[in-house]
Amino acid sequence: MSKPGSAKRQPQTGTRRFISGVVEGFYGRPWTMEQRTELFQREQTWGLNTYLYAPKDDYKHRMYWRDLYSAQEAEQLIVLISAAKRHNVEFIYAISPGLDITFSNPKEVAALKRKLDQVKEFGCRSFSLLFDDIETEMCPADKQTFSSFAHAQVAITNEVYQHLGEPETFLFCPTDYCAAFCTPSVPQSSYLHTVGEKLLPGIDILWTGPKVVSHKISVESIEEVSSVLKRAPVIWDNIHANDYDPQRLFLGPYKDRPSELIPKLRGVLTNPNCEFYPNFVAIHTLATWCKATADLTVSVLIRLGPPSPGDEEEDPCYSPQKALTLALTDWLQEFLSTDQPGGKLEVTSSMISKGSNGKFMCRLKKEASDEEPMQTDMGESSYVPGPDENPLYTAEPLTLDDLKLLSDLFYLPYEHGPTARTMLRELDWLKNHSQAATSETDKVMPCSSSFLNADNFAACDPHSRFQSAEWCSRAQRFDDMCDAVVQMFNRLSNAPNRRILYDLYNYICDIKSGVGLARAYVKTLGGQGQPAAQLMNDDPEPWGFRGGLSGEFQRMLPGHGNRDLFKHPPMTTVYCIRPYCPEDKVEVQRVFTEMQRTGEGRAPRTAQPPLICDSLSAGDISPSPQCALVMEDDAGICGYALALTDATPAAAKTQVIKKQDLIRLISEEFPSLVTSQVLPRVTDPSPAKRMIGWLLSSIKSSGSRGVFCELRQGDRRMLDFYSKLGSFKTIQVSGLPQDIVAMGRTL
Ligand code: GDL
């Protein structure tokens, strides 16, 4: 693993260089031209080579994509594009016409070409068409011309690519840009197959991984999608994107993408936090990752010492922890430099002199421009307080540990940093092991000595005091951790580089308040501070009910929204849904029998009236072709969904419902039948929902008008499942035995 900028080599994919860098592709306020120029400088220093211009809320990138740039805008873009060139960064101009383009209208294609021609005149040589986050339904005119949405997008992309003279770099972002969006799966997605087959081979494809914000990206998942796309994708990585939650910021290292991926990819572009300055870590660690090759780990080992146990085992070429330390060490220098627009500057005493008016002049040496004088009020800061007066406010300088703590508190979308995890765990323990009653009105008995007095904590006598000695000492440790957050906040607020601070300010205020509330609560449990009831009294200040309306909604949800996700590690079970094949028959029978055996309140099968769905599950009747799916987890098949597109022949053979009633129902409204079971070990309802969703779309493709299912009253789980799907409604069928419910939906 190597520090960014320390090694000249670039990973290669075949003969073309590996695309590495940043996509400005988030929603919200776009970065300024000055920030983008600063980004190019950094990219160059750290060895990254690409910038993809795709700010979602820039009018002329998406909403008003047809509009040409004004003279003033043109000038800015020209300057920006040439700045990228100067820093050896490839500037890719992206446009997102998908909100309202009519693909089949030649005028629309002409408008797109005209716009891109204009940008080409600005000096841009690399382009991208993005079709993410748009409606997938084509307008009637397009439906007449194109056999699918994929065909429409591919046709226009190929045409524009050729019109622009087949640029060396041309990127396409599909509408199904991650595995979660592919129906029914990546290998079976007809959308992706069309893109893979029809998109000209010189065009590269963007891909965000298994999800929009992918926790991990595995080598296998990339091999799978590459074989469908017929090329290695460029990862558009949303790991550090925060545009979906105004309370979150991501300052953790680039992580959970094995470095073995590098040779399998065409490139990686990170779409980071909306705030420009806090992206130092995201981009710096990505740069370290991009250079991860076995022979380069040596330089890092020299600088940071040998690997910690278990660390290098996971990825011998890249350690997120070490990459983070490298990034934070460099970031610290950035924080300590004073902030002037247009360039970093360091103030030294030789730059300061007294002007003719008696005021101090500070000669600033900018990095990128000529020296220029700036008047300051240095005279006033030379005030020296008298012996009985207040001493001047002094702030300790920010430390690397402060930045490590900051990063831990604002780590990654699916993971808090180690200190944050410890704090949550400790608070949870203190809450659960407190002898104090936790209801707001109950009185709390104090530890006789303040638990803030560290000397007395461990000595707390569990027999005579309310809280145990262990509780008191852990409460003290928790309090110390909270204090470290406050100290970090103070030192950050005093850091000379105000631009970084202002981008961080809301977040650090928020965490300081959150930690403050937790701290006060623990003090209350220890008998210190105000009683819990007063923490939230009748007329609290607005910070007593944090989060506004959105906070209210979240608090009404089970487990206070997603907070529990982090206390109890997230479920990592991966479910695979795939087509049923004849070899699955025995396993499907096993799931069926198990559900018969364990089903809530269900009698053994022999004692129950026979249903078509039983015969289907038991393998007595085969499901219709392409209308059967199984769900697997690590332990094997754990669920299934089977269908008969025409249930009439089966109804004629097996049925509890009076045949004529059923046959009338089937032929009139609901010709198809579905049955599904999922073992209780699958606690997450979403895979089952997805499986049914896919099955229904296959049934619909077969031309069916509607589908029904038969359920026993005792099978509360499946009844509940179908009811919660929302689209299935109970249907009345005369002659139905009392314990059978039929539910149906039109397709
Ligand atoms: C997305 C958007 C992106 C956004 C991100 C995170 C892609 C291809 N598109 O889906 O603009 O910033 O999610 O919210 O990722």
UniProtKB/TrEMBL annotation:
Enzyme class: hydrolase
Pfam families in the cross-refs: NAGidase
Domain GH84 residue range list: 18-294
Catalytic activity entry: 3-O-(N-acetyl-beta-D-glucosaminyl)-L-seryl-[protein] + H2O = N-acetyl-D-glucosamine + L-seryl-[protein]; 3-O-(N-acetyl-beta-D-glucosaminyl)-L-threonyl-[protein] + H2O = L-threonyl-[protein] + N-acetyl-D-glucosamine
EC numbers on record: 3.2.1.169
Annotated keywords: Glycosidase, Hydrolase
InterPro entries linked to this entry: GH (IPR017853), Glycosyl_Hydrolase_84 (IPR051822), O-GlcNAcase_cat (IPR011496)
Highest taxon, organism lineage: Eukaryota
Gene Ontology process terms (BP): glycoprotein metabolic process
SUPFAM superfamilies xrefs: (Trans)glycosidases
Gene3D superfamilies: 3.40.630.30, Glycosidases, STAT, domain 1
Any one GO MF annotation of this record: beta-N-acetylglucosaminidase activity
Database matches in PANTHER family: O-GLCNACASE, O-GLCNACASE-LIKE
Protein name: protein O-GlcNAcase
Organism name: Anabas testudineus
